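Project standup — Tuesday

K.O.: blocked on the structure for the chain from last sprint. Re-posting the sequence here as requested.
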Amino acid sequence: MKTVVDFLKKAGTYYLATVDGDQPRVRPFGTVNVFEDKLYIQTGKVKDVSKQIHANPKVEICAFIEADWLRVSGELVEDDRREARQSMLDAYPALQHMYSADDGNTEVFYFKDATATFSSFSKEPRIVKFG
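H.V.: unblocked you, prediction finished:
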């Protein structure tokens, strides 16, 4: 999983795909954190993306660096513990002007049964499973 996290952090921005009814939705994200050996992302409960994840937790993320890209598919599981939310906010201090661990809005999810595929135009795909 370390190679997945390193890639996502180096990319800075990744794109999260969810489903809204029968319509795919994709948006940029930047939060990625490891807490208790699980890969976490963060959002706000008031956002449409949160509602989409709760309705269908199967998601995919994609990030690109030069000629290499990473896709991670799996199921997101909400972790409603304060410690998990605070860990994310500690990893991203810039978020603390918009979110707090106790605001009732901050929400973190971890990947369950994830498959990460590293791809390139010049190398064979490499698969990492975690969660």
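K.O.: great, moving the ticket to review. The mean pLDDT is 97. The domain at 2-130 is CATH 2.30.110.10 (Pnp Oxidase; Chain A).
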